[in-house]
Amino acid sequence: MIKFFRKIRQNLLSERKTGKYFKYAIGEIVLVVLGILIALQINNWNESRKDSISELTALKDLRQEFSKNTKVFKEHHQFKINTTLKWVAFISKISDPNLTESNLTFRPTAIGVRTYNPSKSILNSILSTGKIDKVENDSLKYFLTDWNDILLDYMEDEARHLDFWDKEITVLERKLIPYRYYNVDSIDTLKNDFKSEIETNKLFLEAYSSLEYQNLLLRNVYFLQENVRNGEHILKTYKLINQLLEEEVKLKE
């Protein structure tokens, strides 16, 4: 093709047709420019197609990760709700002025200090590699970008609760009640107690009457209630992100 155009130019020059030569040269330049533009357009189309495929793949992976994490969190959140109700009921019982050693009740074995650690490998990969910029839905991009910070706040609250339990309640219970009653991993048999059942009940009654212990138990309930309230926000955000992911996947498929 290049030889063909060159031959035409040479013929025009040899025939001294300068005007036609310049017109032809301009036409050739226009053709070259058009060719370049068409090539760029095709390249842009291919890149756009690759971006769309990459975005769809990322969205599907995120949908799977968030769906799994949502299911795990629902179970986690329900555990916190159930445990909170148990502790509230327990505090109500030991607050009874008629509580005696004969109608004594022991604290819940489920302390409620359970931490949530979701899988974030896909989200973190998308954020770290810049693939988040490929997500066209601005609302979805906003929630995905902020999600780790939202989750971190919740996890930090749980960590504070765990730290409080280990450093304050457990320390005090070691001084007030037998080991097997505050350590669920201990061998729960009477023969491993230094105290008789009567002596143990008396210790519990004294513990429940302690203002320090009462205050710690109330703080524990406060932590649990905060976990539940914050968990409601996490659930709403999970629901919204899942909806946006589902809509975007359907739109891109």
Quickly count the helices.
Answer: 7
> Which series of helices and strands comes N to C?
HHHHHHH
Shape: rod-shaped
- Cα(first) to Cα(last) distance is 42 Å
Average pLDDT level: 80
Strand content: under 5%
Radius of gyration: 35 Å
How many domains in all?
A: 1
**SS elements, strand count:** 0
Low-confidence stretches: none
Major β-sheet profile: none
Structure class: mainly alpha
Level of helix content?
A: over 70%
Q: What does this 3D model show about the protein?
A:
The chain is mainly alpha-helical. It has one domain. The chain has helices at about 1-15, 20-95, 120-130, 140-175, 180, 195-210, 210-250. The longest helix has about 80 residues, at about 20-95. Pfam families: DUF6090.
Layout: helices, strands, pairs:
Layout: H1 2-14, H2 18-94, H3 121-128, H4 138-176, H5 179-182, H6 197-209, H7 211-252
Keywords:
mainly alpha; 0% strand; 253 residues; single chain
Task: Give a nutshell description of this structure.
By secondary structure, the protein is mainly α. It is 77% helix and 0% strand.
